[in-house]
Each structure stands twice: as C-alpha cells, then as structure tokens.
C-alpha cells in the first residue's frame, strides 16, 4: 500500500481551543470512502477528547451533500460500542435529554436541513475520549463527459435568515455556528478513497492526490486515493473519477432481508439510464437571476459575472432575455424581457461588468415571485437561470414557489463555490424541471455554463415513464414515481420495489424508459435478472430507494394508499408513513434522528456540563485555490477598449491580464497588463477572445483583433479572402466568421463543448447570407482551414 500522509494535530497547553479561549473537544475527522459503480459509501469517524475538569456537551453542525443518505450512527466510549437507533425526532431528542438528566453519556444526530446536520455528544466525562462513526451513502452525479463527481463538503456557508411563514424555517440553521479562519481550525481531517471499478483517471479540482492501483481478493481492480497534503478546511474535497465504460445503462438488483416492512423484505432494483438523442435549438425567453448579496462579494460575484457574460454571448437568434440581481432588494436590467440583438447586447455587457455584491441579504423568493408573475413572451418558453452561493434559510419556501410555477417556467440553478447549498440548488432544478450545476474554486465555468444553456435550448424527453416487465411479479412500486425531465447525455436513476413475487427462483425482467422527443417516440431498455441466491449484497439499494420514496410522499408525487398498505394498518398520516419508512430502513430524514445512549455500569457522570460548539472555517471563496490557478492565464472580459480604425471598422485594443482569482471581482486595478504575442497565446486565451468579439447575430467583423488570431494584419487577411479585397462589408464579415470558426477547430478542439453553441449560431448566420455565384459556405471554410494547416 502507498505511504500514508502524516497526520498532525495541533496541541496547546489546555487542549484545542477557539480564538475566544474555550476548548474544542473535537480532535480529528477521518473519512474513508468506497466507490462502487455510481454510488459511494462514506464512513466518517469523529474523535473527541474532553480535557476539561467538567463534562461537556459538544455540538457540531456540518454540511453534507443533499443526495447523501445517513444510514448508520455508532459511538465508542469506555471501550463500549453503542449502536444508534432511528427514532421520531421528538422521541430521539427526549431520549437524549433524559439520558443527560440521568448523568449518562448520550449521542444525537439530527438533520437541520437536507444538507445540514448536527451531531451532539452529551455528558462526555472529564479526561475521557469518544469516537462517533457516521456512515452515509450517496449517488454520484456525472459530469458532461460521463465522469463521476465525489464531493465531500467542508465549508458551511452562513445562511441569511429571511422571514418565512413555514415553521420549519423559523430558525436559522447556522445561527449557533462559530466561524474561524481556516488556519485557526483546531481539528484535522484525513481522507482515503477506494474505487472498485475500471478507472481511466482520478483527478481533483481542489487538492493534490496520491493514487495507487491494485487487485483485491475477488480479482476486482481497485484504485486507492489519498490527499497528498494536509486538508485546511478552506474548501470542499472534490474528486473526479473517469471510468472506462461511461454512459453504459445498467441495473443493480438487491435481494430483500427479513423485515416486517414489505419494502425491505422484497427485492429492489436500481436502474441507471444514459439516454442520448439528437437535439435542435429552440427559441426561448432567458432570464438570468444573479445573487448580489454580501456573501457573494469578491471572487463569487466575479465568477457569476463571467458566467453571465458567457451566457449572453451564446444566446441564439430570436430569443428574448433579461438580467435580475437580488439581495435584500432586487433590480432588473430591463423592465421586461427584450429581444436578443446587438443593441440590447451592448447594453447588457457593460451592465454585467458593473454588477457588485452590494444588495445586502439573500432574499431570493421576492424576485422569483415577480418573475413568475411577468407575462411570458408569446411563443418563447420562459427559462430561468439562478446563480447563487445558496446562503438562504427559507429553502423550502423558495422550492415550493418554483414548484407552483413549473407549468409556465423552467428553472435551472448554478451553485457557486464551496458551501453552496445543495438542497437549494438541486431543489430549484428538480421543482422547476430543469437541471443544476456546481462550480468549485479552480474549476472552469465555461463547460458548466454551456452545458446548462444547451439543456435549456434543446427539447428534453417528455411524457416520460418506465415500463416494467417482470414475469411472476404482480406489482412494482417505482420511485421517483414521477420521472423528471430527461436531457440527452444525462444519467437518470430509477428505483423499483418488486412486490408480491409469485414464484421463487431466478427471474428475468426488463425496464424500458419511454417518452417523446417532440412528436417522435423514444425508448431505451435495460435487462436484468432477479436471483434469490445472488444480487448485490448489503442494503444500500433499499436505503437509497427508501430515501427517494420518502421524498415522493413529502412531495405528493406518489399513490400514498399503496405505500400505506405496504406499511400496515398503523400508518394513518403522511408523517406516520415517513417515520415508519425511516425507522425501518435506518435512514434519517426531517422527521427522525439517530440517538445512542450509553447506559454503562450505572454510575452517573458527575459535574455541571459545559456547552461547546465546534467551529467551522470561514469560506474565503476563490482565494483558496490561488496557488492552483496562479500560473493559469485568465482573460477578463472587461479588459477591452474600443476605438475607430482608419478603415471604418471597429478596432479592438487587446490586453490580457495575469490575474489570480483574487482579482475576479471586476476591479482590474491590481492586474498586471501585458501585450500578448502570438507565441504566448493559449487555447483558453483564444477562446475568450473569440467569445468576446462575437456579434449578437453570430458573426465576427473583419478587424484588427480577428486578424491577430491568425497573426496577420487586416489587409493581409482581407487579401486571402475568396471574395477579394473589394468585397462588401457583409462578405468581409462572412470571411471573418469562417476564419474564426476554423481557428476554433484548430486551437480549441479539446473544448468543443464550450464553443459549440457559438459556432452553431455563427454557421446559421453565415448560411442565411447571400453569397456570390460559385461560392459556397463549404468553399469558404476550406479556404479558412488552410490558414491553420
């Protein structure tokens, strides 16, 4: 096995301490993750030590990805292992409080939000240690290239507390959290991962990694991953896993276990679909909603502005658009959405450049309500893009508002930076029948932005349903019962509980994903086998399916009578059903908690108990990856000036800045300007230049900046045109457009996903123009491509 990174715990005279001098009983966090297929099981061990003279209660509030399902909670104290039990939330809290009152040590894990959890260690005796072990499983999301994304949150962004009529939002989930600079966090984190799959590569957006490959006892290929350096709690741990066989539909069958609950006693199937279908751009009304609250200041607002600019340059012809900024108040660029043309683009670009994070708190609900009330542009579906760091407390109200208006507006969401609320960002996308993306420090935003815009402009698979065919199975209870919109190339996970299996023995079945792309039928099938003696071991599939089923019941997306019938006559209400599902499967939810009580030898813990809140690191935004980004050259959109050339064309003076993410707030006063020569230009420089110069129509002008792309003067490039030097301005622009597209193909072939929309818009414009006789668009492209051979 490879060398393990050294673990280091900073010790002070009286134990680990916060800045205010109070001791911190949490010493270390050790995370071990196992990735199998498209899921991960994560075991997190929290080591506590009380060096005080009195017992303590240590309260640790921390983030987890909202897709995580907590399935096990144990405590080790005095050498005894105490297994946590899932109970109804109030019952668990009462059991914890009763134990504390009796002088017993007790342990409680509670979900404050779907992506925020709290662990309480009560009555930890003086000079004693305890270990908490938390196990959770999660579905790993896929990137645009099919690779898997593992995200271990380390940053908990403080939530802005907005007024809400929802009782569940009456308190701020981060109100009691103490924040420290990352360098002052007194506990440590170690991380290891085992990947049981054929892997093409493992990389990280946030950390340097050590990896080693081996073969386990069952002859499976295993990749071991470790952090190569000490984790500083200033950013999440993000690992990107590229498998050898991506986009392969498959099913995982897990047999049931002895249980009084039919869902757990019967087999469960997990279906993984990767549908691919051809798409065409559709006209839309595109509204970009940008978070301008104080928590977005500095690097985040810079990232959001760059993303908006990329969106603006990639909008197809005939669309309408608008920009809305929100904080404690909100403001719109245009009173109502306007046509996408050069005049309005020239207004939007400098406006976007000027945006600041100066609107106070994070009130997302009011601007969304106003946008939903605005009349839609006839013939153009309303598509809303929300860019936010997710620092809101009224998440449920926001998601509910999106869900109410899903019939007339589709919503997409981008979470910016470590600490972005996965519950909010994914919740908006799910309720709004759109999709979500997350952008971490050091990660390229262009492919994420383009991927999302492509989804918005392309038709999704509609009227989607799953057709199950399994002989000798009388009923399949599917979750999610309502299949969400499916976009080409995305993964879709569906679970099915096989109820009333009428024949013992091996069974063969299939499940077909069916729907429509426009008016054309679409179908994709997966075959699988149900073997009583085989199938996947464990109960992970059942637990992930139970979590999905709980979500269905909460959202009124399923036939509750069928579910209640399976759960028994004692289940009367939705809450009863959720609690029974949760407690039976050991899956905590908003109505349940894990509790563990050490009854010990009957001797109570003596002394008054001191309350200690475990601190979290401040999120300093994109500063945290400056050393990874320092040598990467980033062209800012605002570093351009226009001037009139002698030949009547607009001349662009090109400057490139050597900036870290620290300079991403729109202030270029600290950036080092330099003239860039052709030898220094990278594909990223070229791409950004091309994006910036494109007209709203999709065309490029034959000017100084375009000529520099091929290291020529305007006159030289003009002379190479098949149209000749005396051609009209339109023909000159067509030639310039062909040259730019050939440049993209030659210099940026590896990032085609980022410029595909730009190229499509340009090609459509060029083909609409009237060309001289015996001249075709293909002829022009061949002439342009010769310049790069």
Write a structural description.
There is one protein chain. This protein is an alpha+beta fold and 789 residues long. The strands form 9 sheets. The protein has an 8-stranded mixed sheet with strand order 5-4-9-2-1-12-15-14. A hairpin with a 2-residue loop joins strand 4 and strand 5. Helix 6 runs parallel beside helix 7 (422-431). It starts with 25 loop residues before the first strand and ends with a helix. Mean pLDDT is 82; it is low at 1-20 and 622-679.
Brief description of this entry?
This protein is α+β, with helices and mostly antiparallel strands.
Give start-end ranges of low-pLDDT stretches.
Answer: 1-20, 622-679
Q: Number of helix segments?
A: 18
How many beta strands in the DSSP annotation? 37
Q: How would you write the strand order of the largest sheet?
A: 5-4-9-2-1-12-15-14
- Taking the alpha carbons of the first and last residues, their distance comes to 48 Å
Structural class: alpha+beta
The level of helicity is: 10-25%
The major pleated sheet works out as:
8 strands, mixed
What global shape is seen? globular
Determine the strand fraction and express it as a percent band: 25-35%
Radius of gyration, in angstroms, nearest whole number: 28 Å
Mean pLDDT over the full residue set: 82
What characteristics describe this protein?
alpha+beta, 8-stranded mixed sheet, globular
Topology summary:
Layout: E1 26-36, E2 39-49, E3 56-63, E4 69-77, E5 80-83, E6 85-88, H1 89-101, E7 105-113, E8 116-124, E9 129-139, E10 148-152, E11 179-180, E12 188-196, E13 199-204, E14 209-215, E15 221-227, E16 237-243, E17 250-254, H2 262-265, E18 268-273, E19 285-291, H3 299-314, E20 320-326, E21 330-332, E22 338-339, H4 342-354, H5 365-373, E23 382-388, H6 395-404, E24 409-416, H7 422-431, E25 436-439, H8 446-457, E26 462-469, E27 473-479, E28 492-501, E29 507-517, E30 520-530, H9 540-554, H10 560-567, H11 574-585, E31 592-598, E32 610-613, E33 616-617, H12 626-629, E34 640-644, E35 650-654, E36 656-658, E37 672-674, H13 683-693, H14 704-709, H15 714-719, H16 729-747, H17 752-768, H18 777-785
Parallel strand pairs: 1-12, 3-32, 11-33, 19-20, 19-23, 23-24, 24-25
Antiparallel strand pairs: 1-2, 2-9, 3-8, 4-5, 4-9, 6-31, 7-8, 7-31, 10-16, 12-15, 13-16, 14-15, 17-18, 18-28, 20-21, 20-22, 26-29, 27-28, 29-30, 34-35, 36-37
Helix pairs in contact: 3-4, 3-8, 6-7, 8-17, 9-11, 10-11, 13-16, 16-17, 16-18
